[in-house]
Amino acid sequence: MPVASLRALLAHAIDYAGLFPPADLALEPALQNQSSYVRSPDNWMLGAFILPIGRFAETRTQLARFDTENPLQISALGPKTGKAAEFRSALETVAEATKEFLSEHKGIVSIGQFEMPLPRGPVAKSLGVARATLGDLALNIFWEAPPDAAAKTIEALAGSGSGFKLRTGGVTADAFPSGAQIARALVTAARHRVPIKFTAGLHHPILKFHDSVGTKMHGFLNVLGAGVLAAEHRWSETQTQEMLADEDPGSFVFDEEMFRWREWKISPAQITQRRQLVTSLGSCSFDEPREYLRSLCLFE
Fold first, then answer.
1. Burial class of residue 64, CB neighbours in 10 A (0-12, 13-18, 19+)
2. Cys bridge to 206: 116, 122, 162, 219, which one at CB 3.0-4.6 A?
């Protein structure tokens, strides 16, 4: 069993996104993986299954491997839209499809989270449309915007009850935001108490150069750790960026009483509290993060 501080930092932190690059699996093997993960001893790390709204219909035929004790927990993914009218229409489809899917598969399927890129234009206007359309659905909602617009978007989300989704990588170098951009998003989210989640590029625990993308891939211990420590200690963007840039695994120390990064520390109880705002990360692999943690002797 992992030590308490690591368990608190990674509890239900990995939303499985096997349908997306670079894994890019078909629906059946991705759901087969999810069904094995929910029954795994490591399911304490597992979050939701990232599923586009448009694939609800074909998922109906793949649910036999789930049951009331091992349900399919979904984070529904809405489409990218350009204009306000497209956004409204897409949300109407989301609401209808979600209600129908849940009513057909009570106890087998749960949808507790929704993610979608915001369209261009005023954030407040989009949020008003979303509230009017999705208001009667009990969803934790995360709106995505480009990294260079993250801080302004997070400020606009303050007090709305919605969270922000930050894209932290992809399959090419230009898809990776800078450490400064991630730090700014983390500090702004903590200041305004806006929940934040991450997606893509976080397979490695610690920041590491990867030949496949020709750049450094951010580490999930860097990002989640910086998120909780920045919130707990009211870090500046500069301090937060320093932790995001740390490539030394020895800087990250976990035990039963504390998680320590250099001279900074936070208890498991404090981590759990801060994780309400630093929620999860989407990863196309659930196996790779575990394997890398084992290579660092942080996981058995």
1. exposed
2. 219
